C-alpha cells in the first residue's frame, strides 16, 4: 500500500488524474465506496486484541472433549456475542478418543531400557511444567501389547514399504519405526499393518526438524531431543466422524436420530501406534545391525541408519487407548447481510489443540476473534456487509477434521445453495512468512486483497512481501489436512487457505505462548495484519454486487493441470495422446469465461443491472464449482465428490488436482482414462453452459 500511494501521488501531481482501478465485481462508483469502507476497516482492527485472545485461549492444554476445551468454546461464544454476532454452538457426539490412555515403549533386549514419551520441562518455559500436559500419543491407535524385532521404514510411505518388499524384508510380527514426513501419519500405520507389522513407532528426525536445521527449543524454534509430534491416525475413505459417513454426528440425546456404523464396520487401526522423540528413537536406531539403508533414507542422527535391527534387538510397544462417544461443539457466529442475507461468506479455524496450541491452531482462532470485533464495530456504525459473513470456530479438527465436516454434512443443502466461499485460517498466524492456496476462482481475491494491507516489518505491502521479486505471488492448490475439505471436496464450495507461517513446534507440548512470544512473532504485529488481509477478502466477497470470482482462471489452471497429468501418463504409456475431449471443451470454456467477464464489467460500468438480474447472476456463479461434483464420487472414496481437487488418498496431505486421473496415474493404469476424459468433458461442458447462461442473461439486459 505504501508504494501504491506514492505512485498515485506522483500521477496526481503530474496531472494524470485519479489512478484508482475498479474492483472486481463492483462498478467504479461502488469501488470508491468500498475503498473508503476498507480504509475504515483497516483502522478499526485492534492489533492489541490478538495478543489478549491468544493468551486467554492458550492458558491451558485443551484437547477436544476436555473441560478445558469446552471452556475455550465458551470464551469464543462470549467474545463473538459481545462483538454483535448472532452466535451459537453446534454440538455433535463423535466416536473418538479424548485421552491417550496407557502407553509405554521399551527396549527389551539386549538390555532392558524404558524410553521417554514426553517433553522435558524447560526452565525458561513455565508452560512446560503444566500438570495438564499429556505424553505423546496418536489418536485412533489400536490397543495392544506387542514385542518384536525392529525394521526402519524411512517415512513409511507407500513407496517406502514397497521398497522394503523389494529388499526382501519381512515385516510380519515386527515393530516398525518410521520418521514423520512424506505422508499423513495414519497411512504409515495403515501400510505397516497391511504388511504384517505388530506395532509402529513414529518420530521426528532431526534432519527434518531438529538440530540440523538450527538452534533447538528453548534456544531456537526447532525440535529438541524430547519434542514429540502428536496427531490423529484416522484413515477412513471419507472425512469426519468414523461412524457417520455422509451424515452429521448429531447428539445421541437429540430429537433427530442418526444411524451409526458399528465400530467393527470401520477401518480403525488394530495395531498399537505411538510417537516418540528423536532421543528415544536414537536409542533404538543406534543399536540396529542390519543392512545400511538406501542413501535417501539416511536421517540426521550421527550414525549409519540400518534397515533391520536383527534378532538381538527387540522392542515392546503397549497402547491401551479408550475410544467412545465424545461431545464436541462448533461455535459459529453470523453477521447478517443487509442486502443479500442468504448468500454466505464463511471464515473458519478450529480451536481444539493437542496441548496449548499457540501456533496451531489458536493463532488463527485469535485472529478471527480480532476480525470479528472489527467487523462488529463497523456493523454498529451502520456498515453491515451486504452478504452475510459467518465466522466458525471448529472443534475436533485435530482428531480428523471432524467438527467442520459434521457441520457441512448437517447443512449440506443450505451451504450448496448459499455459500459463496470458505476461507480457512488453521494456524493462520504462525510466523512472519505469507502464503496461501486457493480454488482458481478465489486466487485473484487473495492477491488483490494483499495489495491493500501493509506488511509490518518492511516498507512493503503484504502482496509485495509475498511476491518477492516476482510479478505475482505463488499460490498453491488445496490438499488435505484442514477444515476446507468438506466445503471444497464434498460440496463444491470455492475455498482458500492462507495466513502467515514459519518454523513451529508442531503438535508438541512446547507450542505455547512462550514459544509464540519468543519465536513466532515477538512484536505481535502479524495477528492484526492477517486479520486485515482476511477482512478485506471477506468484505470484497460480501459487498461486491456481482460475486468477484476470477472465472477465466478455471481455463488457465485446468490447461496447466491437464498438461501435467498427460506428461505423467506418457512416462509409462508413450502412446497416450492426451485428454482430447476435455482439451477441446477447455477452448470453449476459455472463450465463454472471457466473454462473461467482459459483459459483467460492461454491465457494472453502466450500472445497468436490476436487483433481480444481480440475484440471477450470483445464483449461477455460486453453482459454478458444483460443475465438478460427481455424485458417485471418486474411485478411492465416494465421499470425495469433486473432480477438480482432493487430498491424496495415499498421503493424506498432498493436493490431487484432477483426482480421478491422479488415481489412475498412481496405479500406472490407462484402462479408465478415456472414460475419465468423457466425465471431465461433461463437467467442463456444464461449467461452460452455466457461464454462457450468465452471458445470455446479461445480453438480454
From TrEMBL:
UniProt cross-references to Gene3D superfamilies, sorted A to Z: 3.50.30.30, Transferrin receptor-like, dimerisation domain (1.20.930.40), Zn peptidases (3.40.630.10)
InterPro entries per the UniProt record, alphabetical: PA_dom_sf (IPR046450), PA_domain (IPR003137), Peptidase_M28 (IPR007484), Peptidase_M28B (IPR039373), TFR-like_dimer_dom (IPR007365), TFR-like_dimer_dom_sf (IPR036757)
Pfam families for this protein: PA, Peptidase_M28, TFR_dimer
CDD domains: PA_GCPII_like
Domain Transferrin receptor-like dimerisation: 584-691
SUPFAM superfamilies given in the database record: PA domain (SSF52025), Transferrin receptor-like dimerisation domain (SSF47672), Zn-dependent exopeptidases (SSF53187)
Peptidase M28 domain boundaries: 330-513
Protein name stated in the entry: M28 family peptidase
Amino acid at each position: 500500500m505504501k508504494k501504491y500511494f506514492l505512485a498515485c501521488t506522483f500521477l496526481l501531481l503530474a496531472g494524470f488524474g485519479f489512478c484508482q482501478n475498479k474492483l472486481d465485481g463492483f462498478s467504479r462508483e461502488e469501488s470508491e465506496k468500498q475503498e473508503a469502507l476498507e480504509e475504515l476497516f483497516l483502522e478499526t482492527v485492534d492489533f492489541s486484541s490478538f495478543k489478549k485472545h491468544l493468551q486467554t485461549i492458550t492458558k491451558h492444554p485443551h484437547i477436544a472433549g476436555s473441560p478445558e476445551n469446552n471452556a475455550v468454546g465458551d470464551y469464543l461464544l462470549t467474545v463473538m456475542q459481545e462483538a454483535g454476532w448472532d452466535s451459537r454452538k453446534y454440538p455433535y457426539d463423535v466416536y473418538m478418543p479424548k485421552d491417550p490412555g496407557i502407553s509405554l515403549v521399551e527396549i527389551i533386549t539386549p538390555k532392558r531400557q524404558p524410553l521417554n514419551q514426553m517433553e522435558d520441562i524447560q526452565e525458561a518455559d513455565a508452560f512446560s511444567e503444566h500438570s495438564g500436559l499429556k505424553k505423546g500419543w496418536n489418536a485412533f491407535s489400536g490397543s495392544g501389547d506387542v514385542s518384536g524385532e525392529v525394521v526402519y521404514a524411512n517415512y513409511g510411505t507407500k513407496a517406502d514399504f514397497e521398497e522394503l518388499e523389494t529388499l526382501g524384508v519381512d515385516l510380519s510380527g515386527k515393530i516398525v519405526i518410521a520418521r514423520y514426513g512424506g505422508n499423513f501419519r495414519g497411512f504409515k500405520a495403515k501400510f505397516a499393518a497391511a504388511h504384517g507389522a505388530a506395532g509402529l513407532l513414529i518420530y521426528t528426525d532431526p534432519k527434518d526438524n531438529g538440530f540440523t536445521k538450527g538452534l533447538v527449543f528453548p534456544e531456537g524454534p526447532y525440535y529438541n531431543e524430547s519434542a514429540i509430534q502428536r496427531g490423529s491416525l484416522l484413515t477412513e475413505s471419507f472425512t469426519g466422524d468414523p461412524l457417520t459417513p455422509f451424515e452429521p454426528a448429531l447428539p445421541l440425546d437429540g430429537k433427530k436420530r442418526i444411524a451409526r456404523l458399528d465400530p467393527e464396520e470401520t477401518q480403525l487401526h488394530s495395531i498399537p501406534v505411538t510417537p516418540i522423540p528423536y532421543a528415544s528413537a536414537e536409542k533404538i536406531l543406534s543399536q540396529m545391525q542390519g543392512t545400511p539403508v538406501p542413501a535417501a533414507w539416511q536421517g540426521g542422527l550421527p550414525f549409519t541408519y540400518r534397515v533391520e535391527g536383527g534378532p538381538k534387538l527387540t522392542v515392546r510397544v503397549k497402547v491401551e487407548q479408550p475410544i467412545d462417544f465424545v461431545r464436541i461443539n462448533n461455535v459459529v457466529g453470523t453477521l447478517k447481510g443487509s442486502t443479500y442475507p442468504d448468500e454466505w461468506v464463511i471464515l473458519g479455524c478450529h480451536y481444539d489443540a493437542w496441548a496449548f496450541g499457540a501456533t496451531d491452531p489458536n493463532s488463527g482462532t485469535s485472529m478471527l476473534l480480532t476480525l470479528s470485533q472489527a467487523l462488529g464495530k463497523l456493523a454498529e456504525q451502520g456498515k453491515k456487509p451486504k452478504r452475510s459473513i459467518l465466522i466458525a470456530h471448529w472443534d475436533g479438527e485435530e482428531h480428523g477434521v471432524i467438527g467442520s465436516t459434521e457441520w457441512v454434512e448437517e447443512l449440506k443443502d443450505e451451504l450448496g445453495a448459499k455459500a459463496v466461499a470458505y476461507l480457512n485460517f488453521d494456524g493462520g498466524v504462525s510466523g512472519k512468512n505469507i502464503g496461501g492456496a486457493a480454488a482458481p476462482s478465489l486466487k485473484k481475491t487473495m492477491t488483490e486483497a494483499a495489495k491493500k494491507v501493509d506488511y509490518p516489518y518492511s516498507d512493503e505491502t503484504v502482496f509485495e512481501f509475498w511476491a518477492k521479486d516476482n510479478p505475482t505471488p505463488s499460490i498453491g492448490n488445496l490438499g488435505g489436512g484442514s477444515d476446507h475439505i468438506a466445503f471444497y471436496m464434498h460440496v463444491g464450495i470455492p475455498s482458500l487457505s492462507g495466513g502467515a507461517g514459519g518454523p513451529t513446534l508442531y503438535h508438541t507440548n512446547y507450542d505455547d505462548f512462550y514459544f509464540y512470544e519468543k519465536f513466532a512473532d515477538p512484536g505481535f504485529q502479524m495477528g492484526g495484519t492477517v486479520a486485515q488481509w482476511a477482512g478485506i477478502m471477506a468484505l470484497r466477497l460480501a459487498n461486491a454486487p456481482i460475486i468477484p470470482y476470477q472465472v477465466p482462471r478455471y481455463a488457465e489452471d485446468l490447461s496447466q493441470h491437464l498438461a501435467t497429468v498427460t506428461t505423467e501418463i506418457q512416462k509409462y504409456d508413450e502412446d497416450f495422446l492426451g485428454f482430447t475431449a476435455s482439451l477441446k471443451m477447455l477452448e470453449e470454456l476459455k472463450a465463454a469465461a472471457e466473454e462473461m467477464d467482459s459483459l459483467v464489467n460492461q454491465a457494472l460500468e453502466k450500472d445497468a443491472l436490476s436487483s433481480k438480474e444481480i440475484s440471477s447472476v450470483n445464483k449461477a456463479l455460486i453453482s459454478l464449482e458444483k460443475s465438478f461434483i460427481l455424485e458417485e464420487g471418486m474411485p478411492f472414496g465416494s465421499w470425495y465428490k469433486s473432480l477438480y481437487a482432493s487430498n491424496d488418498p495415499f498421503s493424506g496431505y498432498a493436493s490431487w488436482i484432477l483426482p480421478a486421473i491422479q488415481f489412475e496415474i498412481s496405479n500406472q493404469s490407462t484402462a479408465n482414462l478415456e472414460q475419465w476424459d468423457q466425465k471431465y468433458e461433461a463437467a467442463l461442458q456444464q461449467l461452460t453452459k452455466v457461464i454462457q447462461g450468465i452471458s445470455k442473461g446479461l445480453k438480454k439486459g
